[in-house]
Design a protein that fits this description.
Radius of gyration: 21 Å
Oligomer: single chain
Number of helices: 5
CATH architecture of one domain: 2-Layer Sandwich
CATH class of one domain: Alpha Beta
Structural class: alpha+beta
Largest sheet: 7 strands, antiparallel
Length: about 180
Amino acid sequence: MSAYCPMKWLKIISFAIAALAALFFSLGAFMPQYEYENTVIVNAPREKCWKIYHSPSLMGQWMPGFWSLTLKKGDSLAVGSEYEIVIVDGERMEMRERITAVKPFHSVSYELSNDVLTSDYTFVFEGEGTTLIRAHYKVTGNNILWKSILLLFKGAISSSSQEQLNLLKKVIEQQP
């Protein structure tokens, strides 16, 4: 028998691919969700930060790809209200957002969902003359594939969220 055996290498490569696939899917099975938090300090009063954060006409300046925010059910900024958010960044992505808690000028919590994920997040506005905006996210993929993918991209997702907060700070501080 020669030193080169194609069947032996095919078995080794097949086993390695199967092991990597099992490892990948085990990420989503054993860590089905993750949480992260971002913060930014804004040189503006809390009320101004709150109003600009909730202004659809300014969202496109701090939320890359923002296309629209449409109230679908309930009253604006009321618990149980539902919105449709459309992001166009190469392709159109529609998301459903439901308000789960509101304390005006202090905090607002949402459940955001689409075909890929469900995310519970809360924005907290703290301070008087200078405002600390704290965003806490809990992200869950809608199936084991997306749970695994989202976990692998946790760092990039967190960085993107921080960039949005930094842009929000800039928009708030530039508004009269």
